[in-house]
Amino acid sequence: MNRQKIWIAMVGLLAVGLFSQATFAQSLVWDASGERNGVIMESTYTELYFGDQCDQVIEVRVWNAPPNIRLKIFVRDWAIGVLQTNEDGYGRFFKGRRNVPLDGDDRPDAPRVEDGDIIKVGQLRTNQFITGEFQPR
Fold first, then answer.
1. Is 110's pLDDT higher than 80?
2. Cα–Cα–Cα angle for 50, 134, 44, nearest 5°?
3. What are the beta bridge partners of residue 129?
4. Rounded distance between C-alpha atoms, residue 114 and residue 60, angstroms
5. Is the CB of residue 53 less than 8 Å from the CB of residue 99?
């Protein structure tokens, strides 16, 4: 292999290394959990920053819920989705937004999670909800 090919390979590896480090320069994560009548709920909200944009991801999980039911999910009283439990009473909800522009405070525009925001998971017809408060990791 000649020197020119080695030089090109080294520059390429350096560029890939720098790009991969700069792609996700920062991530912010909030967690919330709650329990009601033996039903456990956990949620994680993540913002992955790259340049002047970010990706947002929220995941909600429940255990020990009644089997095969639909549970509405609210953050700050905004309905964000529906979680379906399986025959074992476990359910998982996942939602993401990609390439969200940042606003004046270098965070994505709403909807987004803030410290102390409340997540509620439950059924509207029974008005029984599991609640949790988002706290930064």
1. no
2. 55
3. 122
4. 16
5. yes
CA–CA distance, 115 with 134 (Å, rounded to integer)? 6
d(CA 28, CA 93): 20
In this structure, are residues 56 and 80 in contact, taking their beta carbons and an 8 Å threshold?
Answer: no
Contact 67, 87 (CB under 8 A): yes
Q: Are 129 and 36 in contact (CB under 8 A)?
A: yes
Indicate whether 13 pLDDT > 60.
Answer: no
Beta strands (DSSP E) in 1-117 are 26-36, 39-50, 53-63, 70-75, 78-84, 91-101
What pLDDT score does 17 carry?
44
pTM, two decimal places? 0.80
**Alpha carbon of residue 24 to chain centroid:** 15
